[in-house]
Design a protein that fits this description.
154 residues; Immunoglobulin-like; 3 helices; Cystatin domain-containing protein
Length: 154
């Protein structure tokens, strides 16, 4: 199983409910929409912390399927392209963009653990609205709160 398949498999695991997590760790910071393409950019509140990396699994939910570009680690920013031309013209009714963040944490004994964080799903208009809001800032107490509420996957 590839890393991408493992992440997608854990995303669909019903026993772990990311809705328990109150704060978002990833946010949409760029959006460009054309007739045949949607481009989104994603940032992470953990981009300055070396022992925590954020991996994003994006989805675009359409009338007859889901477009899923390859997941990426957020260094400063991750960019994703949804190519609607891969769908038949009559099936290009896409209503929901989803961002599924996973945190990889390097522990003191050099072991990496992966956690699923709170996802965001919404329309392109909702994503555009998020762009006009302020980028979230996070402090140490918020990091501890987020980490204490995450669920281990690997």
């Amino acid at each position: 199983m590839t890393k991408q398949e493992m992440v997608v498999k854990t995303k669909k695991t019903p026993r772990d409910d990311p809705k328990k997590i109150e704060q978002m760790v990833a946010f949409i910071d760029d959006l460009f929409v054309t007739k045949d393409n949607i481009y989104i950019g994603v940032g992470s509140v953990f981009k300055e912390i070396k022992k925590i990396s954020t991996v994003i699994v994006p989805e675009l939910r359409c009338s007859k399927g889901v477009l899923s570009p390859v997941s990426q680690q957020v260094i400063q920013h991750a960019s994703f392209h949804f190519d609607l031309s891969k769908l038949p013209k009559e099936d290009r009714k896409c209503s929901t963009i989803c961002v599924f963040p996973y945190l990889r944490i390097l522990t003191e004994n050099a072991v990496t653990e992966t956690f699923r964080a709170k996802e965001w799903c919404g329309s392109a208009d909702e994503a555009r609205h998020l762009l006009t809001s302020q980028v979230p800032h996070i402090n140490v107490s918020s990091i501890l709160l987020i980490l204490s509420s995450l669920t281990v996957f690997f």
